[in-house]
Amino acid sequence: MFSLESSRRTVARTTTVALAGAASAAMMSGSAEAIVNGGEATQSYPSMVSIPVTGVDDPTFNGVCGGSLIDSKWVLTAAHCVDPTLVTLDGSVRIGSEWKKSGGVVRSIAKTVPHPGYKNGEGAPNYNDVALIRLNRSVSEKPTRIADEPGRPGTPTRILGFGTINDAPDPIKWVFPNRLQELDTRRGAVAECAPGYASSTRLCTISQAPKAMACNGDSGGPQIQRDREGRWELIGVTSGPGAPDGRCSEGPGLYTSTPAYAGWIHKAVSRNG
């Protein structure tokens, strides 16, 4: 989540290009830490999706975004993860695996549908940062349900991703796990993010662990909460930081509210087959 930096170009953290994994000696797998001071997945998440991408300015930069299976042929992610001015999609996604590069089911991308009002924030929050990916064929993995509404501030939530576990200023020092990571978080009040960041469509998110939050490579991934029956449901899509400047671990995080876009999601799925 948050920024893509390469030897040819530096994109500010708040543009939230959020890619992970330039090929470098810093790459590692199976770390016991993650998302930046989170931990390895404690259960299976059949709706979790990894989306390989390549940086536009540096084709040697191989990264990943996250996503959520919301229908047998549809994945929900962040619009900046399919923005052709920022990234080139690899052409396929992996669904339902706790491993970034193995397991689960792989499907080709048939179509991308970004929100028509999407705008890269360029130093401010992204606007309408939500997009759909249509798969070439259905999958049998169980989709996640979009919540009717996010819980009130203080509600326990969880975030998932394959992003760096180290938010060092130098991207060469970033460390990307191959195993899915999770972090327990909570809904934050609007005032817990910087002025102008959180809103009715952007959820302020606070870590329940010290110095922990989503970071580079977590973009598009899910924020989930428990419903009344104790099942996970989707309330957010990783979009960017909840305040300007600062390191990822200093938080807070900012998530596109999926309940706020449920109407658009259902119409877009219907219109695009």
Structure description:
With 273 residues, this protein is mainly β. The chain has a domain at 46-143 and 262-271: Thrombin, subunit H (Beta Barrel), CATH 2.40.10.10. It is built from one helix and 15 strands. The strands form two sheets. The chain has a six-stranded antiparallel barrel. Strands 2-3-4-8-7-6 form a six-stranded antiparallel beta barrel. A hairpin with a 5-residue loop joins strand 13 (222-226) and strand 14 (232-241). The longest helix is centred in the C-terminal third of the chain and has 10 residues, at 262-271. The protein starts with 38 loop residues before the first strand and ends with a helix. Mean pLDDT is 85; it is low at 1-34.
Give the CATH superfamily of the domain at 46-143 and 262-271: Trypsin-like serine proteases
User: How is the largest sheet built, in terms of strand order?
Assistant: 10-11-12-15-14-13
Please tell me what the overall shape is. globular
Radius of gyration: 16 Å
Order of helices and strands: EEEEEEEEEEEEEEEH
Overall average pLDDT: 85
Per DSSP, the total helix count is 1
Oligomer: single chain
Number of strands: 15
Instruction: Describe the largest sheet.
Output: 6 strands, antiparallel, barrel
Structural category = mainly beta
| Unreliably modeled segments | 1-34
- CATH topological fold name of the domain at 46-143 and 262-271: Thrombin, subunit H
Distance between the termini: 29 Å
Strand content: 25-35%
CATH architecture of the domain at 46-143 and 262-271: Beta Barrel
Helix content: under 10%
Assigned CATH class of the domain at 46-143 and 262-271: Mainly Beta
